[in-house]
Amino acid sequence: MTDVRPKIAITADRGRLDDPDYLRTYKQAVEAAGGEPVFITAGDGNADLEGFDGLMLPGGPDVDPSEYGGREHASVYKAPPELDALELGAARAAKRDGIPTLAICRGCQVMNVALGGTLFEDISTHYEADNGLKLRHQQTPDHGRQEPTHPVDVAAGSVVREIVGAGTIATNSMHHQALRRIPYDLTAVARARDGVIEAIEARDRHSFYVGVQWHPECMVDNDEPSRALFRAFVKEAAVRARQRAKSPA
Fold first, then answer.
1. CB 208 within 8 Å of CB 233
2. Full-model pTM
3. 215: left (phi over 0), alpha (psi -120 to 50) or beta
4. Is 1 a member of any domain?
5. Selection from 109, 123, 117, 113 nearest residue 195 by Cα
6. Is residue 174 part of a domain?
7. Taking the alpha carbons of 198, 173, 127, 69 in that order, is the dihedral positive or negative?
8. How many domains does the chain have?
9. Domain range holding 62?
10. Residue range 150-173: average pLDDT?
11. Residue 181 counted as domain residue
12. Between vectors from CA 18 to CA 13 and to CA 21, what angle results, nearest 5°?
C-alpha cells in the first residue's frame, strides 16, 4: 500500500460500462495496491492523461491488424475502432510523458503496436517455435482464469525480474495472438518455453512502462508475483502523484 492514492486511468469500452463485471478484477487489483482506478473512454478527452498518475491498459479484443500492417484472419475479433484509437494514443502519451504504465494481455499488444511493433495475428497459424514446442496459450475453458498453467522465464536485470523476484514464474495464459517485432523503445524481458514473448518494458528504464501477456489481475488472491506487479505499478504512480501535488498548477 502507498501513503498516497494515485489516480490510475483504466481504458475502457464505453459500450460495456453498464456491465458490473466489466474490468472488475483490474479495478479491484488497483484498489488493493492502494490506487484510485478511474475508467476513461473514447470521447472523454482523457487520451492525453492529464490529471492522472498512472495508466492501465487492460485485456480485451484484438487490435485491428491495419494498425500494424498485419493481415486479416478468421480468428481476429476486432475491438471497436474508437477503443483502439484511445488506447494507442494513451500508450504513446504515457511513454512520451513518463507516466507509469502497466499493460496486460491486449494492453501489452497495444503498447507494442503503439510504439511501432507488430503482432502474430494468430499463434496457432503464424507462430512456429524454434524448439518445436507447442504450448497452449488459451487455457480457458479447461482451466480457471486464476490458475497458472505454464512457466515464464524472466530476464536478469529487467524491471519485471526485480518486481517478481524470480527468474521463473508460473502464469496463466489467455491469448491467441503474440508480440512479433518489438520496437526499439521496448525490449522483451520474459518468454514462455516455446519462445512466445510474455513481457516487455521500456528500454530506457526512465519510467515504469511494463507490459505482460498474462493476466496478473486474475491471480492476485493467491500469487505473490501478481500482487507485486500491481504494488510496484501503484508505487511508481504514487511518486508521480506526490510530484504533481508539489508542482504549481
1. yes
2. 0.95
3. beta
4. no
5. 123
6. yes
7. negative
8. 1
9. 7-246
10. 96
11. yes
12. 85
Task: Find the mean pLDDT for residues 7-35.
Answer: 96
3-state percent helix, strand, coil for the chain, nearest multiple of 5: 30, 20, 50
State the Cα–Cα distance between residues 236 and 48, nearest whole angstrom: 19
Question: At 226, which helix (H) or strand (E)?
Answer: helix 224-246
Q: Which CATH number fits the domain that encloses residue 124?
A: 3.40.50.880
User: By the 8 A CB rule, do 86 and 110 touch?
Assistant: no
In a domain, 127, yes or no: yes
Give every CB contact of residue 42 below 8 A, 6+ residues apart in sequence. 14, 80, 82, 83, 85, 86
Average pLDDT over residues 115-134: 90
Distance (Å, whole) CA 173 – CA 170: 10
Distance (Å) of CA 150 to CA 17, 39, 92, 174: 32, 31, 31, 11
pLDDT of residue 45: 65
